[in-house]
Amino acid sequence: MKIEPKIQSKIEYCRRCILIDCKANTRAYHRLTEGERNQVYALKKAGLTQCAIADQICVNKSTISREIKRNTGLRGYRPKQAHRLACARQSQIPRIRILDAIWTGIEKMIREDWSPEQISGHLKDIGEPSVSAEWIYQHIYADKRSGGDL
Fold first, then answer.
1. Chain-centre distance of CA 69, in angstroms?
2. CA distance 135 to 58
């Protein structure tokens, strides 16, 4: 298979940049960067499989599969469009789920000596937005650190 010179230079660049041992340098979950999307495009254009692309940029093969599936349009996979779509999806994630009124009720229950597990279960039973016991513990610890009385 003949590879265009421009694509070949991108592949060579990718190989020079990715000279690390992926297994020794694994990292926690992260979103693909724009540069990694460009690498996916160049390697895909060069005919590499999704597994080979994943090995080259040190991510799981399912990450590459999802990336290509989510971001392939009528004209194929395009990294700039993929990055724009990913940023748009990220901005749609709601940031504040629990209203201050609910936290006030939770704090009242804490002061009445309810455990976080009891509070979490009670909120589920009455149909309020679910708040995990761990989240309540984190709220208590944050309050203590800031000099609160919970």
1. 16
2. 32
